[in-house]
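Posting for a labmate who doesn't have an account.
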Amino acid sequence: MVVAEIRIELKPGVADPEGQNTKKALELLGFEGIANVRSIKLFVVELDASPAEAKKACEEMCRKLLANPVIQKFSVQIK
């Protein structure tokens, strides 16, 4: 059994309204010195495959469903 962590995040320069709203809320709660907040999605996928096969499968999952290649980038880490 292989565990893969798939991280999906917005490409640089793409607006992140969720991150900006979180930053504003934190500042309203009194937290100071926050330069920026970016949101990400993290998927943990368990696969019955070799590490190389799992990485290849997860990258295909990202290309077909999990990530929007126009505005998002992804990374896969096998644990």
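Reply:
Got it, the structure tokens are right above this. The helical segments are 17-28, 51-66.
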